[in-house]
Amino acid sequence: MLPGRYVSSATRPRSGDGQHAHTPTVLFVDQSGELGGAEFALLPLAAACAARSEVVLLADGPFRGRLEASGVRVQVLNDARVSNIDREALRLNWLYAAPAIIRQVCAIAQQARRFDVLFLNTQKALVLGALGKPLHRRQVVWYLHDIMSRDHFGRVQLMIVRLLARHVADRIIVNSSASAQALIELTGLPASAMPVVHNGIDASVFTQLDAGDLPALRRRLGLPETAWLAGLFGRLAPWKGQHIAIDALPELPHVHLVLVGGALFGEDAYEAQLREQAQRLGVADRVHFAGFRDDMAAWMKAMDVILHTSTESEPFGRVVIEGMAAARPVIATGAGGVMEIVRHLENGWLVRPRDVAGLVEAIETLRTTPELGQRLAAQACADVQRHFTLDRYLQQMTDVIDHARR
Ligand code: UDP
């Protein structure tokens, strides 16, 4: 992809704006080298700001290549001792990791001093970037992609985030009202302190892909050409609920399930469990593990229906808007940020979390009444092109960044 691929009017320096002699420069920090939703959200933003920014990653991985291919300058500041601190081990590990943490705080602060704004895209980035504020004294923008509750985070982690959000972050951006609500409950900060910016996507990548010859597309992807395919997209993780979809299969003898996504964050045991579950239920021949894929548009267009089965509230759910852009009917868990995207039986179908019977009913109804699926998908595609555009997303994000300097 060429540098500036994502540049929109939102990111061009404004002329004649007395308060903006120049648009601020930005250091983005993200803890992961893997490609998760937070990283896909940062990618077009960093690309749009490439001329005035750099990205620091706290771990190496395929995300670095994606950023560089978009013309973004990237540095990897990796320290295994810091990377290995996880939620469970936080209390025991931090003493052992303290020297490495201090080194990383200083290293980020040193880089941050070269920029006007420090933009922290993940939790670990928040902690390491915000702790260094006395050293770098830069405006701190935190982009929250999570629902900060005990379902997902440990007590210590929540306590640290609460302190940093209240006392160090200058600007907070949240990816949905659901994420905002949890942060308000955690911190007591007012809603006005955290603008909601929903993710946006380039829907043309989906709408322009010609899936007229469906059997040929499926052949190319190694999928059964004539089966009725339900696709579930996202990294393999228990809370993403791939096991819920497998549980539904014995009741759906005409349906094949395609799981697209890898075990990104050490969830190999869960993948093994899913394979064992499919064997045990006698549906293994109808479950296709595709692994991580780059070409979401092709894989989504190859499906008859797109499932989202998260067992907990999804903070936003990029895969939901992508499925809608692919003009396929989407069945999604009705909780969290998804409620800000999907309206039941208007542009999709909402099912309660962990409701296997509800999922079976939704899939079977859409399989046997294709005209309903087409109506929902057409509305969904129109809604995404109206409300979840990349231009709108970049405009709102750069507005916050550009005002952070004042
Ligand atoms: N994704 C991908 N290839 C895969 C699986 C997922 O590129 O094999 C992308 C997907 O298109 C989406 C992102 O990963 O843009 C996942 O974002 P989402 O908000 O759905 O979930 P998160 O990772 O933030 O929990």
Topology-level CATH name of the largest domain: Rossmann fold
In what order do the strands lie side by side in the largest sheet?
Answer: 3-2-1-4-5-6
Termini distance?
33 Å
Q: Report on the biggest sheet.
A: 6 strands, parallel
Q: CATH superfamily membership of the largest domain, which one?
A: Glycogen Phosphorylase B
Enumerate the distinct ligands. Answer: uridine-5'-diphosphate
Helix content: 40-55%
Silhouette: globular
Q: What's the gyration radius in Å?
A: 21 Å
Total DSSP E strands = 12
CATH class identity of the largest domain: Alpha Beta
Task: Supply the helix-strand structural class.
Answer: alpha/beta
Overall tally of structural domains? 2
Q: Helix tally?
A: 17
Beta-strand content estimate: 5-15%
Mean pLDDT: 92
- The name of the CATH architecture of the largest domain is 3-Layer(aba) Sandwich
Task: Give a description of the structure.
The chain has 406 residues and is α/β, with parallel strands linked by helices. The chain has 2 domains: 3-200 and 389-404, Glycogen Phosphorylase B (Rossmann fold); 204-387, Rossmann fold. Helix content is 43%, strand content 13%. The chain is built from 17 helices and 12 strands. It has a 6-stranded parallel β-sheet with strand order 3-2-1-4-5-6, sandwiched between helices. It has a 6-stranded parallel β-sheet with strand order 9-8-7-10-11-12, with helices on both faces. Helix 12 links the parallel strand 8 (255-260) and strand 9. Helix 4 (90-112) packs across helix 5 (123-131) and helix 14 (318-325) crosses helix 16 (370-387). The longest helix has 23 residues, at 90-112. It is globular and about 60 Å long. The two termini are 33 Å apart. The relative contact order is 0.12. Bound molecules: uridine-5'-diphosphate. Uridine-5'-diphosphate binds next to helix 1 and helix 14. The site of uridine-5'-diphosphate has 18 residues, from helix 1 and helix 14.
